[in-house]
Amino acid sequence: MKDVMIIANPSSGQKQAEDYAQQAKEILEANGRFATINITESGDDVVKFAQEAARETYNTIVILGGDGTVSLLASGLKDEDYRPEIAILPTGTVNNVARALNIEINLDKAVKDLPNLTPQSIDAGLVNDQVFLSLVSTGTIPESVFEVNEEEKERLGPVAYLVEGIQALNEQKSYRFSLNIDNKVDEFELDLLLIGVSSSVVGLTNFFKDASYNDGKLHIFGLKKTTLGDRVGSIANWIFDTEKVQNNGVLTVDAKNIKIELLNQDGSTHVAVDGDKGPSFPVEISVLPNYINVLTPEQK
Ligand SMILES: Nc1ncnc2c1ncn2[C@@H]1O[C@H](COP(=O)(O)OP(=O)(O)OP(=O)(O)O)[C@@H](O)[C@H]1O
After folding, report:
1. Pairing of strands 4-8, 60-65
2. pTM of the model
3. Ligand 1, atom 3: closest residue by C-alpha
4. Atom 30 of ligand 1, nearest CA residue
5. Is the interface score ipTM higher than 0.85?
6. CA-to-CA distance for 9 and 38, rounded, in angstroms?
């Protein structure tokens, strides 16, 4: 019977996906479901199994991996007429998508939660022809974050990104962009440009304070190039300020579509998509409203 397909990326995070895949199968079958396990050997396998689950009309895909794996799964389902609902067991390092959806990060608890989740329809984003579920980023800060190596990532988790991000504020490189936001074109010099579909950014669950996962909008944040002190102040204000004070150091807007051109060649020529390397400039990003159903705990 084609009921639940469990897809596990054994290389993500602390590398315990295979054990948890087995536990997930047992707990689902104890609750009357029927589950098969597929262990992936590469990113291509994630796409291949996702498409198989869609074409064979499985009810549910349980995916074990980090943000990169979950994104690959979502992209793999782009051209399918039917998309199974997905449950995420977050075995990655940052797990921003799972955090944004209020999914349990503790894997022992997440496995036990599996039979009690309810489907929630969420938006996705499309960057060129690639689907993302969390964030597209570019600028000096994300560029240095790519340099976080696997060992640091496993040892420090999200802190590794923060450390690299703060160090990057000191960099002299500059990124000049032409942004076409819902057909309004402007040029900006930015250290950081984030385009998200949820309220959450690299584990900060309330970064885009007014955003929700099914509001049909892209949420855009740009950190303008000013003095180091001003930039630290601007970003701290943005994150910690609950009242919306005027913040001249940031560009912030909601939109349906954004086209990004890189005007100087000083920095990296590609964007990051859900924390992994994405397409090169120019990129076009749009929102895909109600793209997929994700199983989440009841919202409190
Ligand atoms: N055996 C494998 N199966 C699937 N993907 C694999 C495998 N080995 C390496 N990869 C690569 O792993 C990447 C996805 O890893 P993922 O981002 O899910 O884990 P992570 O980096 O630990 O988590 P996070 O993104 O949450 O920090 C993909 O880019 C894929 O190409």
Report:
1. parallel
2. 0.85
3. 42
4. 43
5. yes
6. 9
Whether the CB of 267 sits within 6 Å of ligand 1: no
What is the three-class DSSP state of 288? strand
- Per run of 10 residues, the mean pLDDT along the chain (length 300 residues) is 94 85 97 97 97 98 94 95 97 86 93 95 96 88 59 61 62 82 93 89 81 94 77 70 62 95 80 85 97 86
Say how many Å lie between the CA of residue 70 and the centre of ligand 1.
9
Quote the tokens at residue 272.
């990051």
Secondary structure (3-state) at 150 = helix
Domain boundaries, the chain: 4-116, 135-289
Q: Does CATH number 2.60.120.380 belong to domain 135-289?
A: no
Other Cβ atoms closer than 10 A to 51: 16
Structure tokens at 2: 């084609």
From the centroid of its chain, how far is CA 74? 11
Helix (H, G, I), strand (E, B) or coil at 144: helix
Amino acid letter, 13? G
**CATH no. for 4-116:** 3.40.50.10330
